Amino acid sequence: MTASRVLVVDDDPALLQALPAALRIRMAAVTVDTADSAAAALDRIAATDYDAIVTDIKMPGMDGVALLSEIRTRRPDTPVLMITGHGGHALAVQALRGGADDFIQKPIDRDYFVESLRRAIQEHALNRRVKDRELALRRCANELEQTAARLGSDQPRVLIVDDDPALLQALPHTLRLRMAGVAVDTADSAAAALDQIAVQDYDAIVTDIKMPGMDGLALLAEIRTRRPDTPILMITAHGEYDLSVRALRSGAHDFIPKPIDRDQFVASLDRAIQAHVQSRRVKGRQSALERCAGELESVVEQLARELRAIPARRKP
Length: 316
Hints:
The chain is an alpha/beta fold. The protein has helices at residues 13-26, 38-47, 64-74, 89-97, 110-153, 165-178, 190-199, 216-226, 241-249, 262-308, and strands at residues 4-9, 30-35, 52-56, 80-84, 102-105, 157-161, 183-187, 204-208, 232-236, 254-257. Helix 2 (38-47) packs parallel to helix 3 (64-74), helix 5 runs antiparallel to helix 10 and helix 7 (190-199) runs parallel beside helix 8. The radius of gyration is 35 Å and the shape is rod-shaped.
């Protein structure tokens, strides 16, 4: 466990000796620095991020209230406990309004002083943990946004499935000419296509409906099971209206009638690829949101449990 670091500020040499001694005896793993003036304290604060600062209110030169204001500006998250003399009620209220975490009245009750300081250090540690986790969540969200953006910039990959060797040659050639940066694989049967789908997540698949063995509709059903997010374009012969409707109802993204209109084919395929990329981006962001929400909920629950375990501080 890392030692807590505390700064005690007072112009009284006796208190500068007694308070650190009390803390070292009653608090495990605490390191105590001292400063005999506000100016010396500011030098210390510039070099060290303390877990808590204890300062007298009445000091020559810059007093404790002015020092508190400087600390709130330079180290806004550092808890500050103010030491007040007997009857210094108005100063105590002024200190609390100025952002002090608590005030300690003279003559100092050592038990109350140690407990108040321990509570302030615990709250400071909790706040730092929450801020660290919030920073981690923001980094996580940014990284996932960048990942989602990269999904759209990766080279699109298309699979064309047909038992017609002429189409297996002509369609990839058309795509390479009209769609920049597209990678095209081919398969001459549904069985060969399933082998390729098992190892490659395609941005779109184009398949003929009528093929020997497993036809295009059966292949469509298999793809919907194995790669449910992959858009599929079905090639249909002239007049096969019923087959086209069945394909669309079964989850096909679009159908391309023969003879193939190259412009329509390229435009439909481009829409399918863009829809797939957008879907992946949305799912990536949704996954990030769910992870971040789960982590944040865990942080909030843990923080609430730890805060409930900290006794309430005294009010003036």
